[in-house]
Amino acid sequence: MDWLQIIALALVQGITEFLPISSSAHLILVAKYGSWADQGLTFDVAVHLGTLTAVCLYLRADLARYVTSGLRFVSGGGADQDLQEMLKVGLATLPVVIGGVLLQDDVEGRLRSITVIATTTIVFGLVLAVADRFRGTRETVTWIQALLIGLAQALALIPGTSRSGITITAALFLGLTRQSAARFSFLLSIPTIAGAALLMIVELVAAPEPARWGDLMIGAVLSGLSAYFCISAFIALLERTGLWPYVLYRIALGIALLFAGFVF
User: Fold this and answer.
1) Residue 170 has pLDDT above 70, yes or no
2) Residue-range domain boundaries for the chain
3) Residue 100's CB: how many other CB atoms inside 10 A?
4) Which pLDDT score is estimated for 185?
5) Beta bridge mates, 138
6) DSSP characters over 229-263
7) pLDDT tens readout for residues 133-167
8) Which alpha helices (H) appear in the chain, and where do they start and end?
9) According to the model, what pLDDT value does residue 262 have?
10) Is 211 exposed, middle or buried (0-12, 13-18, 19+ CB in 10 A)?
11) Interior angle at CA 57, CA 203 and CA 87, nearest 5
12) Rounded Cα gap, residues 14 and 57, in angstroms
């Protein structure tokens, strides 16, 4: 890997992971049109761990409360609101785990086409625009709402859908505020990214790759820093800008992809 490839892939992973524009679609496109050799599983693990670290740092106060609540429960205390929210995140994660196991071949095969990516980018961008007008005043999710958001997250297995985009969309339709929808989406990303990284590590154990420690360290740091900056900026600007900038970007990207697919 040359420096340009390392920097480009790390920044694409970090910038797009938490914005509602689909990181998987961008990574597929960079690989397809960048004329680079495959970066390998070790690098993928590194950049995923970078983004995982970023979201854990951003949500460190929430995670600390979850740990405290869990320890209190184990010690004989009741199930407080923090523990319930942690369990709701777990419930919402189940559909994407089940879907990933059942649809792995399709997700890694025919669904990675430019046509699929372009279509989902446009369609779910338009759905996001509609959802932004339906936002409500709820600050927390119920058990049923957590499950519904989790079912929506499973759609993100289709490249171009955007995990953060579809979970924020579902949360807005269910009456959450923009801030609360984004927060729950980011909480959901922690077990999802951790699970994806764990699967990659299992594959690496079965088929080890040479460790390029310098490349891996740079990739992890760049993806982590860019992800943390994007999370912070997204939350800070969300009420001011709404979700329309991301909707317009998705539509423009999808149209450009369809045009490129027909021409090339």
Assistant:
1) yes
2) 3-263
3) 16
4) 97
5) 176
6) HHHHHHHHHHHHHTTHHHHHHHHHHHHHHHHHHHH
7) 988 899 999 999 999 999 999 999 998 899 999 99
8) 3-16, 23-33, 41-58, 60-74, 81-102, 104-108, 114-133, 143-154, 163-173, 178-206, 213-241, 244-263
9) 58
10) exposed
11) 70
12) 14
Residue matched to tokens 């496109």: 29
Q: What is the mean pLDDT of the chain?
A: 90
Contact partners, residue 251, CB within 8 Å, separation at least 6 = 121, 122, 125, 126
The Cα–Cα gap between 171 and 184 comes to 8
Give the Cα separation of 85 and 101 in Å (integer).
25
Q: What gap in Å lies between CA 260 and CA 257, rounded to an integer?
A: 5
Q: Rounded to two decimals, what is the model's pTM? A: 0.92
Name residue 200's amino acid. Answer: M
Give 225's contacts (C-beta < 8 A, 6+ positions apart): 14, 50, 54
